[in-house]
UniProtKB/TrEMBL annotation:
Organism, as annotated: Streptomyces phyllanthi
Ranges of biased composition (kind: Polar residues): 1-10
One Pfam family, short name: TetR_C_43
GO molecular function: DNA-binding transcription factor activity; transcription cis-regulatory region binding
Domain HTH tetR-type: 24-83
Protein name in the entry: TetR/AcrR family transcriptional regulator
Highest taxon listed in the record's lineage: Bacteria
Region of interest (Disordered), ranges: 1-24, 195-216
Residue ranges flagged as DNA-binding region: 46-65
Amino acid sequence: MTLADQSTPAPEQPARRGRRADAERNRAAIMEAAGVVFAEQGAAVDVREIARRSGVGMGTLYRHFPTKDDLLLTVLEDQFGSWLADAHQQATATEDPWQALTGFFEQMLTTQAGNRAVVESYTTRGGPTPSCAQRCYTFIDELRIRCMDADLLRPDVTTDDLVLLSGSLSQAVLTTGDSHPGQWRRLLRISLDGLTSRNTEPLPEPTPHTDTPGNH
């Protein structure tokens, strides 16, 4: 048997490499355009607008993302991951635990004020995706413990309280964004003032969850 008779892997064809590179560029263009459009108009936007801005056809868009929800969740998770990494880095670099906590809320709401789809995701599903929501919960818990250890946070505040507060303030960003831009900053200041350790009056106990007829 000669060397010519031995089977060797065929080199990848240039055309195939070109098609793959085109597909990667198209996907990146779709993601970039979708990030802008979802931020501007929210999840209800027509995907044809995303295709138009990304410069691809509808068939190409659907090959990469079969449904609008697939595209939305991918974009939100990508944006959330970048934001949370920045927030974590900033909090770690902040020595004062209270400043780290307040800076987190400030950064979160500032980001949301410019991204309608992110705010909607918090009010409809608790966060961009379940994994993002869990990562955010863990981060908030770390910030709460830091403040508790420094006696800066009222002792009966729980991580659930802070997560619910973030959702409430997110809703305020959404509902006041057009009529009273920046109103959320006042609400944030009021809320943070109520969290400080100088407030010693016990918080009301949460009402136990009870099943209503038909809910199981």
